[in-house]
């Protein structure tokens, strides 16, 4: 069973509801937790970070790996894009 932790911007209750609804549709998840204070999503099950990111992108959310550097963003293809700021 995999543990996926992502940082996702959540600004209001509507964002949180949309995120929860999208995550619930992912096949093979065991549990999920949405922490609005930390902007953190934790998903467990037979799922990859890329699968979760792809679902979030469909609702207009960008997700970064919780354990990666702040400027590293998963692009939904299992690759990282580096942003210069």
TrEMBL record:
Entries under Pfam families matching the protein: HMA
Chain ranges of the HMA domain = 1-64
Q: Which domain of life is it from?
A: Eukaryota
Where would you find the membrane-spanning parts of this chain? none
- Entry keywords, A to Z: Metal-binding
SUPFAM superfamilies referenced in this protein's UniProt entry, alphabetically: HMA, heavy metal-associated domain
Under the heading Gene3D superfamilies, the entry gives: 3.30.70.100
Q: Which InterPro entries match?
A: HMA_dom, HMA_dom_sf
| Metal-binding in keyword set | yes
- Single GO MF descriptor: metal ion binding
**Keyword Metal-binding among UniProt keywords:** yes
Q: What is this protein called?
A: HMA domain-containing protein
